[in-house]
Write a structure and sequence with these properties.
globular; six-stranded mixed sheet; 196 residues; four-stranded mixed sheet
């Protein structure tokens, strides 16, 4: 299913689905929010919905009005006793210190993060940077922050935005993991000429 229209013919025989978006980062946001597997990002050639997020298998947005899955707000935060990197964890709009490392919005049926789960880190390796997208990350790795304990708060009040709020307290536990390339943007020569 494509938010911007019908799937292209070349996708009909593949076990994939696609969603068109206005900005490239929204593909990664959908992958994280809905626990989908992002295969690649392509140019659409359109002026508004510029990017096409291609996901593995059948993906559908949750029906929040009927038979919807549980909506979960997952907060990863440094344990209050964890001092590593405290001076660099700042809120962008106020400059105040924060213990929040990451947030996820999950509407899937996958298990909650458990002790031992690690956040991913995103990096840009200069030799792999696409000159057409110089600010984009190129690789990711399993990161150094590890979930130590999990608390879940299930909502009992009706008509709330989230059915469950999960707080994952993390400890800094450095680990050596391989950098993995992120899906590359697929741009045809015709589209590239339009961009340039």
């Amino acid at each position: 299913m494509n938010e911007g229209g019908k799937p292209h013919t070349r996708y009909q025989e593949e076990n994939i689905s696609q969603h068109a978006v206005t900005e490239r980062w929204r593909c990664y946001a959908m992958e994280q929010k809905y626990s989908w597997t992002l295969l690649r990002i392509e140019r659409t050639g359109q002026k508004t919905l510029k990017w096409n997020c291609v996901f593995e298998g059948k993906t559908e947005f949750p029906d929040y009005h009927r038979g919807r899955p549980m909506r979960k707000y997952i907060i990863f935060r440094a344990d209050p006793k964890e001092e590593h990197g405290a001076e660099s964890r700042l809120l962008s709009h106020t400059g105040a210190y924060t213990e929040i490392l990451a947030e996820q919005f999950d509407s899937s049926n996958r298990p909650l993060p458990a002790p031992g789960y690690r956040l991913r880190e995103f990096h840009q390796i200069s030799q792999f940077t696409d000159p057409n997208f110089p600010s984009a990350s190129t690789h990711s790795r399993v990161g150094d922050w590890e979930v130590a304990r999990v608390e879940e708060y299930v909502q009992t009040v009706p008509n709330v935005e989230f059915d469950s709020i999960i707080v994952c307290y993390c400890r800094y536990a450095p680990v050596t993991t391989a950098l993995e390339p992120l899906p590359q943007i697929q741009v045809s020569q015709d589209m590239l000429q339009e961009v340039l």
